[in-house]
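re the bet — no i am not wrong, look at it urself. input seq straight from the record:
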Amino acid sequence: MCGQLTDELLASEANYLWINENMDALLEKYLNQWIAVKNSRVIASDSDLDKLISKLPDPNHTCVEFITDEPLGMIL
């Protein structure tokens, strides 16, 4: 169980890193949309989060991110 969890966490981290590394290309194609990424590949996109999630065969094991060029605000 622990090994499987570690593998899933590493895969999730790799997908988030892939998104950050490819943000310019993602902004061109998916601006103001939600994307789902698995194995360093966009597998679905939609402007509505609920619709995107409904498209995913395994949402619990898929990286989901909103692609925007707006600066993120933080509440401290």
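see?? The chain has three helices and three strands. told u. also The longest strand covers residues 33-37. so pay up
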